[in-house]
Design brief:
Layout (H helix, E strand, L loop, with lengths): L21 H7 L6 H18 L6 H28 L21 H24 L4 H15 L13 H22 L4 H24 L1 H6 L5 H5 L1 H24 L14 H11 L5 H31 L1
GO molecular function: 1,4-dihydroxy-2-naphthoate polyprenyltransferase activity
Subcellular location: Cell membrane; Membrane
InterPro entries: MenA, UbiA_prenyltransferase, UbiA_sf, UBIAD1
Length: 317
């Protein structure tokens, strides 16, 4: 199950251009969020290779798992687009949304049907995964898809509560890495759970950064996100702490021998984390915080990609 980069309306709507042609549909997928689906699958598979060797890796399973995660990520984005529109939270000047409905004119029903269609394809791919691993994954997959829907759907969307960051981190970070490891090895170990924590924290950081940006609009619309509860200044402090803990945790993984010293390569992402934190300080206008939000998302992507590379380097070298 995947979580999307949460968005909301801006109290001072800027002028944003409409998409045309195929770009309308590409924008609906929110492609900048799809790396969050790739990273956990990559990490889980790379660690499976480190533990069991390259001959153990079932590459068709890796690609099917990756495609299923991409589809669910995209579907979750579409559910967000649809339900925020239905609740009147998005308008033509909303910052951060795909804008397929309010700016580009796609019918809401089309967006909803496409999301369910992506879910359906992901379920078919899940059957292949279960046939080649364990049918217990079917139950886990259904729970993940239900949470993906309820993230912005249902009577009390998870994204509107203080638990959005925790939910996103748990499902995208811990569970997806765990499943990716399990389908290759047939087991889940405490080591792979510990390995997943930094990525889970950084996924939560993406959601927190979005909620910091959208704090004023969220408060007006009755949401109760973590950023609203602790306040903007404290939320930026929490974000900085999340970055710091992720890097410290990685060092701890090296010390206890779960990963090799090659994992220090993740520190190449630290400048992005610093840029993200600095970019939020003293800002209150949503458009001014977009670069910091983007830097947060890039920190997660670069950190996760480098973590996977570090695992591969530890195995091959």
């Amino acid at each position: 199950m995947e979580m999307k980069v949460e968005t909301n309306s801006s109290p001072m709507p800027p002028k944003l251009s409409k998409q045309t042609g195929w770009r309308i549909w590409w924008s609906l997928l929110r492609p900048h969020t799809l790396t969050a689906a790739f990273v956990p699958v990559f990490i889980g598979t790379a660690y499976a290779m480190q533990v069991g060797g390259i001959n153990q890796i079932h590459f068709p399973l890796f690609f099917i798992m990756l495609l299923a995660c991409l589809l669910i990520q995209a579907a979750t984005n579409m559910f967000n687009e649809y339900f925020d529109y239905k609740r009147g939270l998005d308008h033509e000047g909303s910052v951060g949304i795909g804008g397929a409905i309010v700016r580009d004119g796609i019918q809401p029903k089309t967006v909803l049907n496409l999301a369910f269609g992506f879910f359906g394809i992901a379920m078919l791919l899940g059957v292949y995964i279960c046939m080649n691993s364990s049918w217990w994954l079917a139950a886990i997959g259904l729970v993940c898809m239900a949470v993906a829907y309820l993230y912005t759907g249902g009577p009390l969307p998870i994204a509107y509560t203080p638990f959005g960051e925790l939910t996103a981190g748990l499902f995208m970070g811990v569970i997806i890495i765990g499943i990716s490891f399990f389908i290759q090895t047939g087991t889940v170990t405490s080591e792979v759970v510990l390995l997943s924590i930094p990525n889970a924290i950084l996924i939560g950081a993406i959601l927190l950064s979005n909620n910091i940006r959208d704090l004023d609009g969220d408060k007006e619309n009755g949401r109760n996100t973590l950023a609203i509860i602790v306040g903007r200044e404290n939320a930026v402090g929490v974000l900085a702490s999340m970055f710091i803990v992720s890097y410290i945790w990685t060092i701890a993984l090296i010390i206890v021998g779960i990963v090799s010293p090659w994992m220090l390569i993740v520190f190449l992402s630290a400048p992005k984390a610093f840029k993200a934190t600095k970019g939020f300080i003293g800002k209150s206008i949503p458009m001014e915080m977009v670069p910091a939000m983007i830097a947060t998302a890039k920190t997660n992507t670069i950190f996760g990609f480098l973590m996977g590379i570090g695992l591969l380097l530890g195995y091959f070298l």
